[in-house]
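Minutes, project huddle
Topic: does the predicted pose make sense with protoporphyrin IX containing FE bound?
PN asked that the exact inputs be recorded in the minutes so nobody has to dig through chat later. Recorded below.
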Amino acid sequence: MVGPHGRSAVATQHDLLVWVHGDRHDLNFDAALATRRVLSDVACLVEETAGFVYRDCRDLTGFVDGTENPPAEEARELVILPEGAPGAGGSYVLVQRWVHDLDAFHALPTAEQERVIGRTKPDSVELDDLPPDSHVGRVVVEDEAGEEIEIYRRSVPYGTAAEAGLLFLAFTDDLDKFELILSRMFGTSGDGFHDRLTELSAAVSGGYYFAPAQEALDGWLS
Ligand code: HEM
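Predicted holo structure (tokens), as shared on screen:
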């Protein structure tokens, strides 16, 4: 997806996504290494990102990430394909690696940073006068029935002092929801706005995957 200002959500689709999640970086490493070895006859590893929790669940910009995320139990109802649907019990996944221009972001006065995100920095309160080109102003969108479109985000900061950003990872029951939000972020939705965050962070990789239900995975593996 390429926006009118040249900002793009690049597609770097691969065959398989393995998401290792846990509080222990050492154990995550062991699991990732074991997974690479077990798949080595059929797949090669082309991209790997190790994330971490930054302060009190903040993105590296310093803003809390996840405030409006649905709680995990509620998220199951929202993003898992229902009984009877193809792939029932599974969920679609979007993964994008964003590289932040942290020097540019942090050079903005805090009030301006807040206008980019659409929330206050210390305590993540939505701005009363939400700018239409703020991140929150672009990603909060309703469907044709007037219901707010919900996705479930599990993004993590990653990187070093040289290059850092956000590994965006989110789940949905309908890929069109991702497409709609991305079109609003990248300025292709036709209302003349784009997300100012895309001026300060670049999506350098991205792909869609399908996370099957646990039972389906167990069935294939046995
Ligand atoms: C550079 C990449 C991104 C950063 C740093 C970022 C950061 C944030 C922050 C700080 C918030 C406000 C707190 C919260 O409710 O979580 C937020 C909200 C949100 N973001 Fe992002 N985000 C990024 C990319 C994306 C992308 C690619 C999507 C969707 C495809 C997305 C979807 C959302 C949604 C749905 C919300 C909740 C808005 C609400 O209900 O108020 N974000 N993000």
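Observations noted during the meeting:
- The longest strand covers residues 201-211.
- The beta strands are 91-100, 152-153, 156-159, 164-172, 201-211.
No decisions taken; revisit at the next huddle.
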